[in-house]
Every structure is written in structure tokens, then in C-alpha cells.
Specification:
It is built from six helices and 14 strands. The protein is rod-shaped and about 160 Å long.
Length: 337
């Protein structure tokens, strides 16, 4: 029993101490709150004194109102910071979009200029094509009517003469260019078929440069010239080609048969080829000859090499074209294809 009473006294003492402590804490807290209210409730007077002789303005408030105002200002400032950042980012984005807009406008102006140049080129092409077709005897009016006749009534709406500058103008230019190209397709195809059908004719006519790979230059033209050795005026009956050296290949300028191979004091080593349509070609002053009489040769076959044989002042090829008994200027046939 004595031990039980001792424990009870200890519990009562501990409870008393805890109650005393809590009472002291709440008392201290109450005094703190009272002091805080007292501090916030302190009266303040704000005086606004004008520089002029106006009336002085007195504003009465307390510390609590000032603290609340300061918190409101700080809250507004904190809220404004993200908005300011977003506004700054939007400003940068707007500047970037404006720059892209300027670049787009510049590109559009360049595109319009190129579109106009392309259209002008197409018009020149159309004119040249019409002239070529007239020379070849091809009637282009039917081709154009077939190409443009299928256009709908919208073609009149997009007439470039009736439109102001803008997107429709560029659209109309492109439509007009498309019309030009479509009208040119069939005539060009006709020209291609005509050239293809005449390919054998071009191979039978001496129409290419007689030196292999098209090298060299014309050292003496056809017609009236001064003889390089005799020094007198005479009629040069062919064209002289020079590469400033011997050994370059000489080619047949058309399909044919070798009619003669020989040597002459004037022409030196020479080859004569007979072609269709009564045409003959002569190749003179050759260094070497690579064909024999009676051989069939094709255009561009090597028949010999440039030399300095016969009456000659240096390595060159003397080239002639005969039609029947007439000698003609080879320059009129070179590259005729």
C-alpha cells in the first residue's frame, strides 16, 4: 500500500508540472499575441506636404494596414515576374516571326522575278519554234488549237491582261507557261521524228569535221587565196585543216566506197571516197593511208593520218567535196547535222 501511495504522489506531481508548464506556455503565447496586436495596432500618421501653399494631407493608419499593403505589393510583384518572362519570350518570338516574314516576302519577290524571266524565255522559245516549224513546213496552228482548245472557261478568268498583281497573277503566268510548253511538245516530237527518219541521209552526206575528234583549225579557206609556195593568187578548191603536227587521224565524212588511193606530186598521198547522190570527197597530203580501193567505209572511220606529202609547206589535211563535176565549199556541209 505504501508503494502504491508513493506512485500516486509521483503521478500527481508530474501532472502538476505538466499543467504548470502548459499554463506558462499559453500565458507566454498570449502575451506574444497581445504584443503583436499592440504592435500592429500602433497608430501612424502619414503627412503629404505639397511644395506649394496647398493644404497638408494627413493619412491615419496603423502598422497592420501597412504590413498588409506590403504583402499585397510583394504578391503582385511575385505574380508579375512569370508574366514578364512570358511577355519577354513572346516579344522574342514576334521578332523572329517578323524576320521570317521579311525573308518570305524577299523570297516571294525573287520567285516572282524568276517566274517573269521564265515566262519571257518561254515566249522567245515559242517564237523561235514557230519560225523553225515554218521553215520545216510544219503547221503549228493545229497543234496549238488542240492543246489550248481543251481549256475550260476558267482560262478567261485567269487571263493575265485582266488581273492585278498578286497570287492570281503568278498563277496565270504559270498556266500560260504550261500552255506554251504543251503547245511545243507535239511540234518538237515531229521534228525529232523527221530528224530520225533523215538520220541515214545525214550519214550519207559529208557533214562532219574531217579530223578525228574535231581537233585542229582551218588554216586556209575555200576560194581565192595566195598560193603559199608560188605566191600568186589562185582558187583554192578545198579547205586546209591543221593541227600543227603529223599523225592525227583523218576520218571519212560520210558513208561511201573508196574510189581511189594514190600519190600525186601536188596532193601527195590522197584518198577519194564516192558517196551517194553523186558526191565525192578527197583527202590529200596524208602521212599514211589506212584503206584500199573498193573498201566500204562508214562515217567517222579513220582512213589515214595528217601528213606533209606532196606540194605542202607543213603538216595539214587538204579536204575537197565534189558534186558531179562541180567543186563546192566544204564549209557549207561541215556540221550540217
Amino acid at each position: 500500500m505504501a508503494r502504491t501511495r508513493r506512485y500516486n504522489r509521483q503521478d500527481n506531481g508530474l501532472f502538476s508540472k505538466m499543467a504548470h508548464g502548459l499554463g506558462a506556455f499559453f500565458s507566454l503565447l498570449g502575451r506574444g499575441i497581445a504584443k503583436a496586436f499592440h504592435a500592429f495596432d500602433q497608430k501612424l500618421t502619414i503627412m503629404v506636404v505639397p511644395h506649394s501653399n496647398g493644404k497638408v494631407l494627413n493619412i491615419r493608419t496603423n502598422t497592420f494596414a501597412i504590413a498588409i499593403g506590403a504583402l499585397v505589393i510583394v504578391g503582385i510583384a511575385v505574380t508579375f515576374i512569370p508574366f514578364s518572362k512570358r511577355s519577354s519570350g513572346n516579344g522574342i518570338e514576334i521578332s523572329r516571326l517578323r524576320e521570317e516574314h521579311r525573308d518570305t516576302l524577299a523570297s516571294l519577290d525573287e520567285l516572282r522575278d524568276e517566274n517573269n524571266n521564265l515566262l519571257q524565255t518561254a515566249k522567245r522559245f515559242q517564237t523561235s519554234l514557230s519560225r523553225a516549224l515554218s521553215i520545216l513546213g510544219i503547221n503549228q496552228s493545229e497543234n496549238i488549237s488542240k492543246t489550248t482548245g481543251g481549256n475550260s472557261d476558267l482560262a478567261s478568268i485567269f487571263d493575265t491582261q485582266d488581273l492585278a498583281s498578286g497570287t492570281l497573277k503568278e498563277t496565270a503566268d504559270i498556266k500560260q507557261l504550261t500552255s506554251y510548253l504543251e503547245s511545243a511538245v507535239q511540234p518538237v516530237e515531229q521534228i525529232g521524228k523527221m530528224l530520225e527518219s533523215q538520220g541515214e541521209l545525214f550519214s550519207d552526206i559529208p557533214s562532219i569535221w574531217p579530223v578525228k575528234n574535231g581537233i585542229g583549225h582551218i588554216s586556209m579557206a575555200f576560194g581565192q587565196n595566195i598560193h603559199p609556195i608560188k605566191g600568186i593568187w589562185y582558187i583554192h578548191r578545198g579547205i586546209d585543216f591543221s593541227t600543227y603536227r603529223s599523225g592525227d587521224g583523218v576520218v571519212a565524212t560520210a558513208n561511201g566506197q573508196v574510189a581511189a588511193v594514190g600519190f600525186d606530186n601536188s596532193f601527195g598521198n590522197y584518198v577519194i571516197i564516192k558517196h551517194k547522190h553523186g558526191i565525192y570527197t578527197r583527202y590529200a597530203h596524208l602521212g599514211t593511208i589506212r584503206v584500199q580501193k573498193g573498201d566500204q567505209v562508214s562515217q567517222r572511220d579513220v582512213i589515214g593520218t595528217i601528213g606533209n606529202t606532196g606540194l605542202s609547206t607543213g603538216p595539214h589535211l587538204h579536204y575537197e567535196i565534189h558534186i558531179g563535176s562541180d567543186v563546192v565549199d566544204p564549209a557549207k556541209y561541215i556540221n550540217i547535222k
